[in-house]
Amino acid sequence: MTQDRFVSLQPSPEAPAGALIRLRGLYPSLKAALRKVADVALARPELAIYASVNEVAAAAGVSEATVMRLCRLLGFRGFQDFKIALARELVTPLQRLHEEVSEGDDAATIVHKVFEANVAALRDTLAVLDMESMAQAAQDLLAARLILLIGVGTSGPIVEDAGNKFFRLGLLVRALTDAHLMMMAAALLTPADVLLAVSHSGSTRDTVETAKAAKNAGARVICITNNSLSPLTKTADLVLVTASRETRFRQEAMASRLCQTSIIDSLYTLVALTRPEEALQNLAKIENVIVTKQY
Length: 295
Description:
The protein is of the alpha/beta class. The protein has helices at residues 19-26, 32-43, 45-50, 53-60, 64-73, 79-90, 107-128, 131-143, 156-166, 179-187, 205-216, 231-235, 252-274, 276-290; strands at residues 147-150, 173-176, 194-198, 220-225, 238-241. Strand 1, helix 9 and strand 2 (173-176) form a beta-alpha-beta unit. 56% of the residues lie in helices and 8% in strands.
């Protein structure tokens, strides 16, 4: 192998982190040709690093233009930036510490693999999360007249937990998980309001339709999702991306919830630190009344 086949690990200033992480998140929304390239990159990342664009295209059975289109879709300027990000990801010491749980694993092995998978999901999410979007989301929540939190299925508990957190800061919040109530509440929003939608797939019809209703009412829409190409992101003004991988025994409802909760906790903290005196006063008032409920 000649020297020019190796990839420098010096990052481009504009190259985003987490090539494989982003690819896994976008995968469900990719069309057939793009998915062939993704399959090659996910199954044989070393090939994508050291091969040329035409060699990757040949391995995937697509055109070079398709490979380039996928790179740009992932946020890279071109194939070289994608290779650099991929190489850096593969040499990270913490990369792939866990493996998929199998039927023959003993209890200790299973517990370790589950914990490592959760840690990996949180690290992956931190790698792809846009900090400017997080800061803007916190500002939007702080400025909102009303915050409507929505989510169904496994996202429901995340939404309810978010409601319990934000109202303690003195914010006017509604957390809804019923599809009909979500739509009715969204229709009554105003341009002074914010809707925060949580959906791992970003393709849940009830959540997407509610977000559209909120948008039509003039409200600002923020979403937390694992798929940055999902229907939900097309309506949202701000997209906060999580990263978690599905396996045979660990479906998205597990690790993704940790990532969603961590984003909610981060937004809560950002808002609280913007108004620390009021936040502390509210928490003190709550503690004074809650203490009577304890033995």
